[in-house]
Amino acid sequence: MAxxxxxxxxxxxxxxxxxxxxxxxxxxxxxxxQKQRNRLAENHQYSRAYLNMILxxxxxxxxEDEDNVYFQEKxxxxxxxxxxxxxxxxxxxxxxxxxKYVEKKIxxxxxxxxxxxxxIKWLMENDYMVIKRFSxxxxxxxxxxxxxxxxxVELFARNEISSLDIIYTEYVNTLTYNPTMFELLxxxxxxxxxxxxxxxxxxxxxxxxxxxxxxxxxxxxxxxLEAKTSEQAARxxxxxxxxxxxxxxxxxxxLSYNQARQASITQEVxxxxxxxxxx
Length: 279
Hints:
There is one protein chain. This protein has about 280 residues and is of the alpha/beta class. The protein has five helices and five strands; from the N terminus they run H-E-H-E-H-E-H-E-E-H. The chain has one domain (about 20-235): Pyruvate Kinase, Chain: A, domain 1 (3-Layer(aba) Sandwich), CATH 3.40.1380.10. The chain is elongated. About 25% of the residues are buried.
């Protein structure tokens, strides 16, 4: 009986120690989530500004069809995907939900730029065609972002890929974050724009040659921030669930401990009573 009580006490101590860790991780995730949400809100304005500039440029008077390379539909099928996952775990089903979405949406022969250790490992193990890997990124610095954009823009301009999209986890709120795909290139110009008296300098093509890569860069960074915001929301949710489970387990173990202790005391009293009767 004594051994049983000691084992229950060790188990209780272990669960309480684990709860302290998960509680600390939940607090850290909450702080990071707030920081990411603020950065995301600020960058949304930046990416929207580039989109508005493109829409304004498209409304400039132009009699011919758009012939810039970034607007042209390709006559072959070889899409490039940028896929964003996390580097670390303990964020619930965040990564697997996204990778299941990837499995449904793309072919294994499609070229991929993979961002995040979890995605890189899974994609390589499942024989997807990863042509660029960006590992252990908690931030996209200008050099990394420039490398990504220069590569994809060059591939699209050289007709080596038919389109570009980015697959990431869209942040809705602290409890909702959904895997999604956003089409980047070619830009859709099917909308009829009201023509305005705007002059593009030095010419229409050069304006779009500058604007579109900047827009793509802003959107890639925006979706990266959104994915990281979703990751922290998922991690906080996972740690909150772990805390609740730990608390439930502590209550169950405490009840078992009290029952075992009561049984031990009862046994000792019975032994003392039996000894007294024998005397």
